[in-house]
Amino acid sequence: MKVSIIGTGYVGLVTGTCFAEVGHKVICVDCDDEKVKLLQQGGVPIYEPGLEELIQKNVASGGLTFTTSTREGVEKSDIIFIAVPTPPLPDGSVDLSFMEGVARDIASVMTSYKIVVDKSTVPVKTGDKVVETIRRYCKSQVEFDVVSNPEFLREGFAVGDFLKPDRVVVGVRSQRPVTAMREMYAPFNCPIIVTDINSAELIKHAANSFLALKISYINAISVLCEASGANVQEVANGIGMDHRIGRAFLDSSLGFGGSCFPKDLSAFIKISEKLGYDFALLKEVQCINARQMDRFFKKIVDTLWVLKDKKIGVLGLAFKQNTDDVRMSPAIELCQRLQKEGAILRVYDPKAMEKAKSLLQNVTYVADMNSVAEGCDALVVATEWPEFKKLDLERVRKVMTHPIMFDGRNLFDLEEMERLGFIYKSIGR
Ligand code: UDX
Q1: Is 253 in the pocket of ligand 1 (CB under 6 A)?
Q2: CA-to-CA separations, 410 to 184, 303, 310, in angstroms, rounded
Q3: How far is the CA of 292 from the centre of ligand 1 (A)?
Q4: What is the mean pLDDT of residues 387-403?
Q5: Of the options 3.40.50.800, 3.40.50.300, 1.10.150.170, 3.40.50.720, the CATH number for the domain spanning 287-425
């Protein structure tokens, strides 16, 4: 199939590359000149495991091209995916101006039947607005269909998630675009759920909110575990083995972050409000998440007492493992709070240090994980990078002024840490 993807951010780039990988002819369009140049030369603006190789391979074979021209993208393709940012407004609702702008651009250059697919996360009923906009700005009476096709990619695992999806959701207003959408996704051999557009749009917000709810649920349980001497990991294993619950997303932490969950939760609460429903359950999910960070911070203060001039090592800056993304990262928030109290920070992240530099100044960026604790009064684990489990704990203990570790991700074994002589404080155990 001939497709174009408008918006070469995180979602657009992974989508375009993976479609090219399975044999579609893909044009990625972005208004950022510099980014397009970088991509044309085989460079990649984000770190995502496996993505760079796939881009280079498909650019070389001619199946994947990049341009700044929406006209070129629209003229040369039958299906146009919109993957532009839908950032939050100050009141938590969604800024749809990029979406509207792209719908207008597409309409102004469309001269034959096109399927316009929304991949960005948008409030329910946005599809109706896109239809209205295209109709209004289209110069001739060209036929078109609008489809909602939300993405469920996790950063750090996006290529795998795209190539092997649990399901693909296709929201339509009529049957006409269904065959083409099935053909687009046929190479992935996965269930395709065809719904109306409003349901497809709701599925995305409902899915992300439910996942965030799972994390806040286990984080609330972690409070009970700490108060009663139970172990949250044992509890998560015990409830997670019930197939109706499932073990995934039950890892207690210092709170969830990233560019999706916090934004989508606020948006969904606003959307519900506009539809006349007070989604108090989701407001509590947000509160539990904020309190989880407060509780972790308090643990540090309670142990170290005065933070001013204390030297603290921090492992992890990304909002989670396998990514260089620091947007809404709990690790960055924690560092900023520690700095505010006068702590002196030494920090390390396998991939996110460059991106962290704009948010976190006056800290020492350390080149390897085993040196981060040198001369420190405490060490904090803030991101669940798997390599942190391979930390040389004997060495770390020896180079620290005091062997105190605060683990916001429960990476280490309690008995082992005690045996090694650490004062070790984790979450819910
Ligand atoms: C999420 C959704 O998973 C994905 O389907 C959607 O398309 C975009 O939003 P992402 O933001 O990449 O993906 O990260 P995810 O892996 O879901 O983790 C989000 C946050 O929750 C991270 O900060 C992570 O560390 C935290 N988390 C996750 C926990 O604290 N505990 C868990 O058990 C799982």
Answers
A1: yes
A2: 41, 18, 23
A3: 16
A4: 97
A5: 3.40.50.720
